Each structure stands twice: as structure tokens, then as C-alpha cells.
Amino acid sequence: MSDKAKSEVIKEPSMLKQKEMIASNYERLTSGKEKTVSTFVPGNLNELIMCFDMVNNLPEINAIQNGMRKQSGGMIMDAEKSGHSEDVCTYVKADIGMMGRGNIAPNGKPIPPPDLLLLSYTGCFTFMKWFELLRHEYKCPTVMLHVPYEGDGVITDNMRDYVVKQLKTEVIPAFEKISGVKFDIDRLREYLARSAKAEDDLVWCLEAGKNKPSPIDAYFGGVYYIGPVFSAFRGTQQAVDYYTMLRGEVEQRIKEKRGPITPDGDMNEQKYRLIVEGPPNWTHFREFWKLFYDEGAVVVASTYTKVGGSYDLGFRHDPDRPLESMAEYCLTCYTNRNLPARVDTLVDYVGEYEADGLLINSIKSCNSFSAGQLMMMREVERRTGKPAAFIETDLVDPRYFSHANVKNRLESYFQMIDQKRRSSSAAA
Amino acid sequence: MKGYIGIDLGSTTTKAVVMDETGSVLGRGITNSRSNYDTASQVAKQEAVVDARLALVRRELMDIASLSEDDVVDLVKGLESGFRLEQFIEQLGDLESTCKGNVDATRHKGHEEGLRDALTTLFGRLREDVVGLFAPGAKRKSDFFRDLAGTRYMHFGEEVASETGESFDTLINLYDKSIIEVENRPPAGDMSNKFNRALNRVLEQGNIKADSSQIATAVKAALEVPIDETYVVGTGYGRVRLPFPKEHIRSEILCHGLGAHLMFPKTRTVLDIGGQDTKGIQIDDKGIVVNFQMNDRCAAGTGRYLGYVADEMNMGLHELGPLAMKATKSVRINSTCTVFAGAELRDRLALGEKREDILAGLHRAIILRAMSIISRAGGITDEFTFTGGVAKNEAAVKELEQLVEENYGKVTINIDPDSIYTGALGAAEFARRAVEE
Ligand code: SF4
């Protein structure tokens, strides 16, 4: 194999399709022909946005894109120069830095200022400050959707009604005004039906991690899988097609007893089955992933793939209860759930996916995810008896990724699993 | 006999432990880590095997009825220093020929002859001098060839330069060039020969009560026991660079856990403050790691921090602890960040605080940081073992004892004098288990 061929990243057809989809959304965003709304990934209202013929722009996704393309470091430094502290969420700083550099999308064209800021602060209070900064800059209307925190670990009727009420009285009227399009609930129902279809297939794919060998990597591969359903495509036919295609690929791999495809090709030797909690690192994504597949570690389930909605716990968008189900969707995001609920999810995953243990990637600049993670780790260890480990990186700040440090901890963790197995097989 | 070897390739020193099939330690060896990891591990291993040989010699000598225990101790000591001397002379020979070989590379055309002669004189003096360095009871500042040869070379170099009129700088330059080459070659030569020559030296001194032929037979018997390299396990920061297959490599976290368990079987919590990082490790009753935490990307609270402080204060690393012990109070230092430490230090000095009080505060800051890493790993349970280079620093130990008691009450705190070998010990035990269990 030539060096060039070796360094080429191997991609599945679904990944290529996804790349096209993302590119097409950037084309729409940068065309200047359509009205745009900036909003957040967790619990977003994509179907509703589509009802007003608007395109959504997700600053978090821009930050991820810039992180993966090694652009975020400079942007973060720019933001720090303009006065944002080192401890601030690096998505925010990457976004502010990107704005300072003319908001150039990956296609090289500038993203025009949004016509509306839709602030839905599901699970993360940083969102409020973030959009405060953007509003100051863009001087455009902002509409806020307040989603109550699932403090007791359950969604009550009151919570749902409260969100629905805001949709009716604040969000929809604001959209009608800005877009000039009248709200049509049947159009929404149609989109929601497509969402549910895509969600079914997504869940099927994620649950394929229960197979041995696992045909997917539910963390590193998983972030590709959730792309369309968590972003501007939920509710579209494109998303439905994407998930049909993905499901086909996964089915095929199960049939052939093949593991997931990594950037270096098929991963077949699966020595460790892990549950991973916390977002990935984007600036060193490939290097980070390699630390896993080189050791034969496959992630069979992750919580990060539930940040935009915990579909595998049963939630589906429902065309028969359009606004109610949208409200429930906002409430069901992973980071909007309380710590005991997160622990329960992790404990269940360890059992259902027959994992060897839990790994937490604690993100330095994301309080929303990271607070309480050590407690969660201990609790999961205690309840499952499986070893757990903790690594620390950041989202898109390249200064906070230490390869040697992460590698050291991961290796120790994998060997801990080995030891644990040996001692339990000796005891048996 | 089966030999199980553990090698811990650390950032400054490389350690090796040889163990037999029953798990008892036969020998330990240490050397400075160098750019060539392969050599570092070979040298450490060789040192451990030498130590193991001496252990076998001791066993044999014990069987000689006419020798008292003290005699045996003296004999083994004599044999050891004799062996070191022989090894040193061999390495000097290597250094001499390397220096001479490098003469042509100096930019002193026409001086070659003179320089070579000067080197001959210089090395002649080094060889004479060296005997005293290894005489029984002699104190050496270091056991590493580089350190010992270096200081003496400077000393005689000056003499020889002024006598012969050759340039001192050129002589130093030759040394600097050559020592790296010599250091990156594991000492050659047959081990038994060196032991035999060492034995002759001991016997020549003649103050032994037993029959010298009996002693010679015993030593010979000990030297003839084959020590096989049955299985080797490597660990430490440089482990990936070790020329071992992957299954022979273990993370240092696991090796430290297991090593601490072998030293103190009741240990449940281990703190290792190394040069590069600090680890809090929890182990079970079999020495298996159940949890660990370590410092993140920065060197805050690691041994590196003390090195930085020592540089700032223009002191040697080993002087910090003793000076801090003289403190009458502890100045509060908030930052364990290596970058801030210097600033805080100068600030406190400017405020008129005493150096020893500031140092006490700095030690406390490191230990506080270590305490937070331990608490992240689940806190301290009885017994607790402190390993790594900083465990040798009495001021750090004092702060640790105090903070452990304040936070966790009375727990046994273990510090093994051989704690520098903890990782290598754990690695050797992994090697033994890989075959024996
Ligand atoms: S959830 Fe974390 S990453 Fe997302 S905006 Fe909040 S702090 Fe930033």
C-alpha cells in the first residue's frame, strides 16, 4: 500500500452521503436566498423551523466542523484576545472567533447574519449567555423557549404544557412574523411522521451495538450517525433515506459478522466493549479514535449520541400530538436529565450491551456534561461491579488534548479490564 | 534458574528487578535513562543481574561454616565494589579509545599526536584514582559512570592540560562527544571475568578468616547458576519505546499498584508522585487496580514542579526537603502551577518571607494537589503507600502525614526504602505470573 493510500480515511457510503447533506445545508445557509435561524442542537425545533421555510444554522456544529478542520484553535485565541476567559465553553469561543473572521462556512462562503435567534436552553445555561453575545452583535430578534430541567428525573404534564404554551404564544408567532409564512399544523405533522421514521431506523442502528462483534462504534461512528437527525435534516426525506441506507449497511455487517469501519478500515478484533459517557474531542478526533481501535476497544453505547434526544428510551416524534411531542423532545435530551437518571441509563447500558465497563471523557470546558461525572463513575462502578475510568480532554480547544496522558490512562484501563477478567475467571 | 525481569523506563532513571519463580526478588538495578532506551533497559537489566549474582554469592557463602555473618557481609561488599571497579575500568578503557578515535574530528590539525598523548596521561591518572573511589567505605556522589568519570576527568584534564600545553577546552570537548557514545553502549565484557578479578582483589587484601579456595569455589558455584531471562515485562513512560512485543508491556499504573501490593500486602491506596505525573491508585487485596486518577495535561503538583522550584532558588533538588524541614511556619502558596510557582516564590521573597518557610509552603501545595487527585480516585483507606521520587523528600512526607491524618484520620503510611523500584517490581511480578500462573 502506498503512503498516500494509507493516510486516506476510509468512509462508508452513508458517511459520504452525510457529508453531502451537511455540505448542501451550508450551501443553503450561505446562498443568502433563504431566511435563517440560529439555534442549538439539543432539543432543536427543526420540523417547526421548516414549517416557516427557514434554514437552521447550528453554532455548535460550526464549532465542531472548525474543530475537525483544525481551525478552532485560532478562533478560540481570537475570542480570548477579545476578553473571553479560558474557562468558557470552547464552542462559544470558537463561534465568537468564527464571527470575528467573517463567519466563513466550510464551503468558503460567509454565512449571513441570522434573521432570528431561537434560544432553547435545554440542559445548558451557557446557551443564554452565548445568544446574549450574538444578539448584541447581530441585533436581530431573539425568541426564547424555556425548557424546564428534569430535576426529579421525570417529565410532568405541567412541564410539557409549559413548553407547549410557549410554542403557541411565543415561538410560533415570532416565526410567523419573521418569515411571513402562516403556521400550518398539518405540514408539521407530515414532517414529524418522517422524523419518527428516521428515528426508528437510527435507534435500530444504535442498538445493533448489542451484537457481538458490534457492527458499529456507538461513539466515534455514532457521531456520524446522529448528524442528520440532530441537525437540519430531521423531518426531511433525505434523513429518512439516509437512515434506510445506514440500516442497510449495519445489517450487512451483522450478517458478515464484521465490526465497524474505522478511518483505517474494518475493525474486527474486539477485545473490549465499552460504554462511553461525555462528548468526544473534535480537534484530534481521528487520533483519539485510533487510541481505541488500535487496542481493540469498541464503544457499544454512548450517551453523547443522546444529547439531541434519548430516542432509545422510547421517545418518538408523534404526528398525532405535534406540539406536545415537540415539547417532550426538548425535555428528553440527555443533558436535561438529572444525575440519578444519567446513572440509571449508564448502568442499564452496561448490562444491556454486555459491556466490559464505563469510560468517561470529561470535557474541561463543558460544565453541563461534566458536573457530577466522578460521582456517576463511582456509582456505576458500584452498581455494575465493572471497572470504570476517567479521561480528560476538551471539545474544540486543541491545547487541552494530551495524547500521552490520554493514552496512558486508556492503556491502564484496558489492562485493568484484562486483570479483572483474569481474576474473575480464576475465581470461577 | 528462571529469572523474571521487570523494567521501568522512567523519564530520568531506568530501573530493573529480577525475580525468581517463587516471587522473591533476586536483584535490582538502576541507570540513568538516555536517548537510547534500548541501552538504558539493557544496562538496568545487567545491573539487576549483577545484584542477583551477589545475592546468590551471599547464599553460597552462608554455607561456609567458618564464616560469620559479618564476614559474609564484608566479603559480598568487597566483591561488589571490586566488580564495580572492574566494570568502571572497562568503561574507562572504552572511553579512552573513543576519545582517541574522536581526536581526528577536532579542529586542531597538527595537534593529534599531542592530544592522544595527553589523553594517555589523563586516563592513566583516572585509572589510578579510581581504585580509591571504590575502596570499601568510600562515598560516591553517584553510581552512574557518566557522573563519576565526568568530575574526575575535569579534575585531571585541567592538570594534564597545563602540564602538556594542550587545550583544556579541546579535552572537554572530546569527553562530551565521547561520553554519549560510550553511554549508549551497554558495558561489554564477560560478567564472570569481572567477578573473578574482583574476587582476586578481595582475596589479595587477605583479611579473611576462611580458606580462600573454599571461598573461590563458593563464588564460582554462584556464578555458574544460570539465570534465564524467562520473561520480561516493561513499563514506565518510555515503555512504548522498549523493544518488546506488546503483550510484554504494562501500564505503570498497574505496575505501581502491584509493586506496592508486594511491598505492603495490606495497602489499598497508593500515591505515586513521579517526575512527570502524579497518580492516585486504588488496589484490591490482590494488588489489582480498581480505580486510578492522575494529573491532567499539566505538570502541576508533580516532581517536575519541585525541579522547577529548585532551579528558581538555585538549589539542588535534594536540598529542598532538608531546608523546608527547618521551617518554623508554612507560607501559604496557592498555586501548584509550574509557571506561577516562580512568580509566587519571588513575590514571597520580596515580602521578606524566609526561604525555608516558603519551601514548606511549596511542599504543602504539592501534597494538597496530590490529595485532590487521591480524593478523586476515591480517598484513602488503610493502609496507604507513598511511592515515587518525591517519597524520598522528608518535607513532602511530613506534609502528607499531616494532611492524611487531617482528612482521613489515623491510617498506616508506608514508604519503602526501595520505593524507586516499585514499578519495576510490579512489572517483574507480571512477568512471573504470565508464566507461572
Ligand atoms: S452543553 Fe457544554 S458544550 Fe454545549 S453549550 Fe453547554 S457548555 Fe458548551
How would you describe this structure to a colleague?
The complex is a heterodimer of chains A (428) and B (437). Chain A has 428 residues and is an alpha/beta fold. Chain A is built from 18 helices and 10 strands. Chain A has helices at residues 3-7, 13-31, 46-51, 59-68, 72-81, 90-100, 126-138, 157-179, 185-207, 222-225, 227-230, 237-255, 285-293, 322-331, 339-352, 367-370, 373-384, 403-427, and strands spanning 35-38, 54-57, 116-120, 142-145, 261-262, 265-266, 272-277, 297-302, 357-363, 388-393. In chain A, strands 2-1-3-4 form a 4-stranded parallel sheet, with helices on both faces. The model of chain A is unreliable at 1-6 (pLDDT under 50). By secondary structure, chain B is an alpha/beta fold. Chain B is 56% helix and 12% strand. Chain B contains 14 helices and 9 strands. Chain B has a 5-stranded mixed sheet. In chain B, strands 3-2-1-4 form a 4-stranded mixed sheet. Chain B is globular. The chains are: A alpha/beta (428), B alpha/beta (437). At the A-B interface, helix 17, strand 10 and helix 18 of A face helix 8 and strand 7 of B. Bound molecules: iron/sulfur cluster (SF4). Iron/sulfur cluster is lined by residues 89, 91, 124, 126-127, 335, 366-369, 395 of chain A. Residues 89, 91, 124, 126-127, 335, 366-369, 395 of chain A line the site of iron/sulfur cluster.
- Give the strand order, joined by hyphens, for the main sheet of chain B: 7-6-5-8-9
Query: H/E order of the elements of chain A?
Result: HHEHEHHHEHEHHHHHEEEHEHHEHHEH
Counting helices, strands and paired strands, the structural category of chain A is: alpha/beta
Write out the distinct hetero groups bound to the structure: iron/sulfur cluster
The unreliable regions of chain A are: 1-6
Number of H- or I-type helical stretches of chain A = 18
> How far apart are the first and last residues' alpha carbons of chain A, in Å?
46 Å
Order of helices and strands of chain B: EEEHHHHHHHEHEEEHHHHEHEH
Structural class of chain B: alpha/beta
What is the 3D shape of chain A?
globular
How far apart, in Å, are the first and last alpha carbons of chain B? 17 Å
Mean of pLDDT of chain A:
93
Q: What composes the largest sheet of chain A?
A: 4 strands, parallel
